[in-house]
């Protein structure tokens, strides 16, 4: 299933390409299925609570990433995002541990 373009900017070029085309070149290929579900959910999210699915371990971040939220992809990889005025405005895919 090919993903549709997101209106949300991505800091991670591989994640952006994956969401737009389904190409796995810029992500960990074994993360693809979960990322697809998370990005689809994130695309319709209106608040961080919309990302509070079982096993995703939604939590707010602090220090250098204060104002960002995180959900677990696999291992230490996270999908991070910020919200503004009821919309997700910035998305990143990272291993920040």
Which features would summarize this protein structure in a list?
97 residues, globular, alpha+beta, 4 strands, 26% strand, disordered N terminus, YaeB-like fold
Question: Could you explain the architecture of this structure?
Answer:
With 97 residues, the chain is an alpha+beta fold. The protein has a single domain, classed as 2-Layer Sandwich (YaeB-like fold), CATH 3.30.2310. It is 23% helix and 26% strand. A hairpin with an 8-residue loop joins strand 1 (59-60) and strand 2.
Question: What's the quick description here?
Answer:
By secondary structure, this protein is α+β, with helices and mostly antiparallel strands.
Radius of gyration: 12 Å
The helix tally amounts to 2
Global geometry: globular
Q: Helix fraction?
A: 10-25%
- What sequence of helices (H) and strands (E) makes up the elements? HHEEEE
β-strand percent reads 25-35%
Cα(first) to Cα(last) distance is 31 Å
Lateral arrangement of strands in the main beta sheet: 1-2-3-4
CATH class: Alpha Beta
Structural class determined from secondary elements = alpha+beta
Count of folded domains: 1
Number of strands: 4
Catalogue the unreliable spans.
1-6
- Taking all residues together, what is the mean pLDDT? 87
CATH superfamily: RelE-like
What's the CATH architecture? 2-Layer Sandwich
């Amino acid at each position: 299933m090919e993903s549709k373009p997101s209106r949300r900017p991505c800091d991670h070029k591989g994640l952006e390409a994956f969401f737009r085309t389904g190409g796995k070149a810029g992500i960990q290929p074994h993360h693809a299925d979960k990322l697809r579900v998370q990005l689809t959910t994130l695309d319709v999210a209106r608040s961080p609570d919309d990302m509070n699915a079982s096993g995703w371990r939604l939590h707010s971040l602090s220090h250098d990433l204060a104002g960002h939220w995180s959900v677990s992809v696999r291992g230490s990889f996270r999908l991070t995002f910020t919200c503004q005025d009821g919309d997700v405005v910035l998305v990143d895919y990272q291993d920040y541990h």
